[in-house]
Amino acid sequence: MPLDTTPTRALDAAQINRFIHDGFVRIDDAFPRALADEGRAILWRDLPCDPHDPATWTQPVIRLWYYDDPPFRQAVNTPVLRAAFDQLVGKGRWLPRSNLGSFPVRFPGTDDPGDTGWHVDVSFPDETAGAAETDFSAWRVNVTSRGRALLMLFLFSDIGPHDAPTRLRVGSHRDMARLLAPAGDAGLNHLRLAEVAADRPEALAVGPAGTVYLCHPFLIHAAQAHRGATPRFLAQPPLHPAQPLQIARADGAYAPVEEAIRLALQEA
Q1: Domains observed in the chain
Q2: Model pTM?
């Protein structure tokens, strides 16, 4: 379907402030529900189960990878999202996407999905001698979030509190910034985050299909088991930077994603 080219709304000052201090902002109707419906039909085609027969939903989670079909390309390139990327990361400072990365499709049930630990997403390989770039357990994250400008959550199905919504630790990006700062450019890997920001309140990434959560790359988050009735479809791609994030700009032209890191370090 053609993209809407009418003038777009931008994030208001309150939303940008919420992103800086809470670590995320929710955008309703970020892409049309029709694109979500088309995308789900494509994903069901590749799932080893029947959308109409819950008896075939025998696994708690199935991961599908890197679809660049038109519904996905269009969903990540709507005018409102591109405007929000400009506001949060900076115009000309992010790279457009042609796909939506991976889809961890979650199914109702009582089995432990085995991937519900608190974490931040790592973004670059360990470059020490002998480290294999394909060893993702050794990948790292550093205080300027090399390789990742935003974490994004694209809701391709309606997600309520019981439908395995991603859990978000509100404000935890600030704790992560302070943890990462002493490690410098090298960053840290394989972080154990069970107790990092454990006192932060939780929020749930809920909403109707077409909702997008734009999150600071340091926001601590976690999956959870599905206690609802309908399979959950969600994409979780990064927004890649066109240039490295900076926390010391000569011109002081900091984007909100950088300003959040700076404020966290000032709080230390």
Answers
A1: 13-110+127-267 (2.60.120.330)
A2: 0.93
